[in-house]
Design brief:
mainly alpha, 478 residues, 3-stranded antiparallel β-sheet
């Protein structure tokens, strides 16, 4: 179909060019007709004059002698004239052939001259190149002479280096023997030092543990003495008489004493201390409770106001949604008929009683088909219907720019033409600018400006733009 469109466009261009040529030919013919009219008037005048002259000539002709010999002479002259014209035509052809041969030889001479100049330039370049190569050859020969002496010098240097390496190797071997002996002694010394350090570390650790245990015991003893002094107000020596315990008699087990002590401490803790601020704390709590009650009342009032505001917003949103839906639906019905050239279509809210939670369904009936859901239409019909919905929304709430990506791909030529006409009408209103990404020739021919990417070189992209309005104006001016 695209090839057919291209062929049709080519035929259209040929037809336009033919129409232009016909217009020019018509103008030329009109000019020739005007000239012929003037010529006819002039010839009419001359005919009148010739008629009068003819009458005079007829009267004179009656008085002339017989015209037979004159006509024979005229026939002979005409034959000679025809022969002369034939000779002139052959000579003219020979002259034209000579002119063409001369022009061809001149062009060949110019080409030969140009080629001769090119060979002169190449010869001059070759001479310069030969001089340069000769100079480089001299430099290379000089360097080669110097390099020929290098092997002897390198051999002598190599022998001296071998001698130095042998002497250095001998010194290195002696130093390696001394180093091995020193490393052996160092290893034995390290082992002895490590053993002594290990013994010293063990002794220090034992000393530190002993000191720490002694310090802990002193601290525990000081703590016990301090607790006895705080709780019993006696020295540790007076604890036994205070508890009526005979130090020389047998004492109960430590577990029994600890259990008795824990029981006595719990009984004391259960009694608890006397709270002297109970009344003040109760007043503070009452005040806090009153503040919390007031805050709860304020919060409940705010919740009520918020719910009322939400209800009002939902009501207003429903009204505005239904109003916008009706507007979009009316625009959609109008655009559907314009894009399809007839038919019927409408939008419907479904799946919920609340418009804010409802879905949207599209019902369309192209010309010659019954009303059905959008999913039952063909690809091109679905695309046109979706375009109608989109443009209906833009007519209801215009946006500054609209990007359409390959929306005309599933459409045929007639539908593409309707789509382009609709886009042009909406663009002329000046509210929305349309940016269309497309490969369709008809769409590209109907836009104001084209943007494309070309690759003049491998791996190098270049942006190209063409203002079709300027191109049309330039073509008209040309």
């Amino acid at each position: 179909a695209r090839n057919g469109v291209q062929i049709a466009l080519d035929k259209l261009n040929v037809a336009r060019e033919a129409a232009s040529r016909l217009a020019q030919e018509t103008s030329a013919r009109q000019s020739r007709m005007d000239a012929a009219t003037e010529l006819a008037e002039r010839l009419s005048e001359e005919s009148t004059a010739l008629t009068s002259d003819l009458s005079v000539s007829s009267s004179k002709l009656d008085g002339l002698p017989d015209e037979g010999p004159g006509r024979q002479k005229v026939a002979e002259l005409r034959a000679e004239l025809a022969e002369a014209r034939s000779q002139q035509a052959s000579r003219q052809n020979a002259l034209d052939q000579l002119a063409r041969d001369t022009e061809s030889r001149l062009r060949r001479a110019e080409a030969i001259e140009s080629e001769r100049n090119s060979w002169h330039e190449r010869a001059a370049g070759a001479t310069d190149r030969i001089a340069e190569l000769s100079s480089r050859a001299d430099e290379t020969e000089t360097a080669l002479t110097a390099l020929r002496q290098r092997p002897t010098e390198l051999a002598e240097r190599r022998e001296s280096l071998f001698e130095e390496i042998a002497a250095a190797e001998k010194v290195r071997a002696e130093a390696a023997d001394r180093l091995a002996e020193a490393e052996t002694l160092l290893a034995e010394s390290d082992r002895a030092v490590k053993s002594a350090e290990s013994d010293l570390a063990s002794a220090r650790e034992l000393k530190v543990r002993t000191e720490a245990a002694e310090e802990a015991a002193r601290t525990a003893l000081a703590g016990v003495v301090e607790r006895i002094s705080e709780r019993l107000q006696v020295r540790p020596e007076g604890v036994a008489p205070l508890a009526e315990i005979d130090p020389e008699a047998s004492q109960p087990e430590e577990d029994v004493l600890q259990a008795r002590l824990d029981r006595l401490l719990r009984e004391r803790d259960n009694v608890g201390p006397v709270n002297l601020r109970a009344e003040t704390e109760a007043a503070e709590l009452d005040e806090q409770i009153a503040g919390m009650i007031a805050e709860r009342q304020d919060l409940e009032a705010a919740i009520g106001r918020l719910r009322q505001g939400i209800s009002q917003l939902n009501r207003e949103a429903r009204e505005r949604l239904l109003g916008s839906f009706e507007t979009v639906n009316s625009h959609f019905q109008e655009l559907f008929q314009r894009l399809f050239g007839g038919g019927k279509a409408h939008l419907a809210l479904t799946e919920a009683d609340d418009p804010l939670n409802a879905g949207l369904e599209i019902f369309a009936s192209p010309p010659g088909k019954r009303l059905q859901h959008l999913s039952l239409l063909s690809g091109g019909e679905q695309a046109l219907t979706a375009i109608a919905v989109l443009f209906a929304v833009f007519l209801t709430n215009p946006a500054p720019i609209c990007v359409l990506d390959e929306v005309d791909a599933p459409l045929d030529d007639a539908n593409v033409d309707r789509f382009c006409t609709l886009v042009e009408e909406m663009a002329r209103e000046g509210v929305t600018r349309f940016l269309i990404i497309t490969h369709h020739r008809m769409t590209m021919a109907r836009v104001d400006r084209l943007f494309g990417v070309t690759m003049p070189e491998q791996g190098l992209s270049q942006l190209v733009s063409v203002d079709l309005q300027d191109a049309v104006a330039l073509r008209k001016s040309a």
